[in-house]
Sequence to fold (145 residues):
Amino acid sequence: MIGNKLLIILALSLSLFANDIIIKNSNHSVDKTINNIKKIVKDKGFGVFAVINHKGNAKSVGMSMRESKLIVFGNPKLGTALMQENILASLDLPLRVLVYEDVDGSVKIAYRNASWLKGLYGLKSNESVNKIDKGLDNLTNKATK
Fold:
């Protein structure tokens, strides 16, 4: 029991220090980039589970911020296999991509590569992790051009 709690605390702590964040420039607005991601994900037959509008949420409580949206999506078959290997991986699945307006007005796209998931949760599935990394790279390159 104490071992499980310690493992959870360790996993959550490590996720705070994970630095495998990839940031790319987008040639489009935040909305256009999000729509591009949605289309690519749906065309691949995967699911878009949510789009969280951070600026809209801030506005609803009388605060302001630059444009920022988080899209949550995934391939349930691939994600489930990783969660079966270690259920704690579901803390970071499905996948998320942040699209935001930077301080200089440029639009950026940010996400974590899957390699950090592997290390954080002790996943052994190189094939699945490589598929996720390659897929995220291709998806974000296509969505930003």
Observations:
- The chain has one domain: 2-144.
- The radius of gyration is 16 Å.
- DSSP finds six helices and five strands in the chain.
